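Record type: monomer structure entry
Structure origin: computed from sequence
Chain ID: A
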Amino acid sequence: MAAFTAPNYLSRLIHCSCLRSGVRCSPLSLPRFPGFLRFFRLSSSREISAPETMQSTGSSMEVLKAVLKRCAVQPDSIVIRDQQKSYSYAQLISSSRSIADLLCNRDLTQPSHGSTIAMSSQQEQQKSRDLQGARIGIIAKPSAEFVAGIFATWLSGGVAVPLAISYPESELLHVMNDSDVSVVLSTEDHQQMLKDVAVKCGARFSIIPDVMSSMAHDSISLGGEIDDSRTTETGVENALIVYTSGTTGKPKGVVHTHAGITAQVEILSEAWGYSSADQFLHCLPLHHVHGLFNALLAPLYAGSVVEFMNKFSVRGIWNRWRESYPKDGVKADNAITVFTGVPTMYTRLVQGYEAMEPELQLASAYAAKQLRLMMSGSSALPLPLMKEWERITGHRLLERYGMTEFVMALSNPLDGPRKGGTVGKALPRVQVKVISEDGSEVNSSEVGELCIKSPSLFKEYWKQPEITKESFIGEGFFKTGDTVRIDEDGYYVILGRSSADIMKVGGYKLSALEIESILLEHPAVSECSVLGLPDEDYGEAVSAVIVPVASARDVTGSKPVLTLEELRSWSKDKLAPYKIPTRLFLWDSLPRNAMGKVNKKELRKLLQ
């Protein structure tokens, strides 16, 4: 890769954008073509946020500060490993600063219609280093480059929007347009696709340079102070916009502040004992709070090492654990100590273990036993799986509960009894309330809707003030939409969603209505209903019941009108992989109530 020089790179970027749009302009001029002005959009100061009672007042950017402090003291210490490569604090921060230089090369807040604002040279210098809340999309496999992109966005006063590699173009465009992304940062392996998508939504595209090639700063200056005025004087307190899985329609942008992130990493580090002695094996997507907070930001805050495994691999995980603890009493210097995953991962790991030769099973079970902590979340952990995993590894998985809107709120204890079928009790600094349908608080023995109040609660749903307001009750409690009960020991048991249209598939909460709306676009589909049916591996399987159009029906019955393979192939460009149906039923009609609405309760009975 050519040497990374921020000013020249941005000039080339501007020049290429002009050529693509057909507008003639020099690399140093501001082009005027549709979409370019979106590069200068600021975060709105008029959005209606969640009640002030739930907003954290803690310090800002503490995760980044913690990394910078360690960089100043031990710049050559390893902080991230990825694909047999190790990255030091100095390399990570150097790359982050280089990307921040690129993002701040041109003032994103300057009016582009010719008017000027008089300001002192000091003010001008500060503004040139501050994006003032512009949204920066980041899409890359779990890697040091992804982390550098997040840190660079924060260093430059921007708001990071993690994007899913698995999203089809239609979903990427929705998220990018909804969040008004100004710049898309990505690695070279996604360059062509992201260039095209960026042009369609009027955003800029830039490649994140390889972290190893970004050593351009004196290590003595790498741990410099962060200017907190960006989150106080300028009012830019937003740090992240994480999009939901789309449980009630299109995915919503959940805005997290720097203060909220600080509160969450402090809570998790305290509750689960994260420390600089830990080394995490990370196999989760980074557009989801499980992978982003539990397995990345909180460990980095605590001084842990994070090792990325870009793609979940049963063989790779067992091998890595055996490398960490090769024999009795031996522990490798880079030994993994913490692993967190979703139930489906543990199911696959059990299957992999059962396929091993007896001698390899002994070595694998011994190695797994040596880890300090193993956790499960994002969907319910089946009790038989929990027991089988404990039999093999000696680990009783720590199950916890969270949502995009507040990250983690309930957890089984690090030290103490971990009860299967429960998600434990409230984490430190988290308050819990269970309410009935009329909004009154229920007794501990009754069933009701779980409500959460935490310093890590989100600020707002991006550009949806009414939905934000409706999601809270008095005193700043957020309504989760999950039905719970409390057992005799005070542990919370999640009973499920109150809506029949919400499915939990492999750690994702999916909207049946959204999937139905896409399937109805298929030329052979007249009516359809989507629901989640029980599945041993994924919790629920996305199942589609379809009534074909009359013209497509084969009266002879010699061949199906539509096969599952055909439907899945057609859906690939329209739905994320985990939303595509894995089961298909072709019926003549759907059961409906008197109002013409599909009776999903009856439908479920007929299918089970």
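Annotation 1: Residues 1-58, 107-127, 216-223, 228-235 have pLDDT under 50 and may be disordered.
Annotation 2: Residues 276 and 304 are 4 Å apart (CA to CA).
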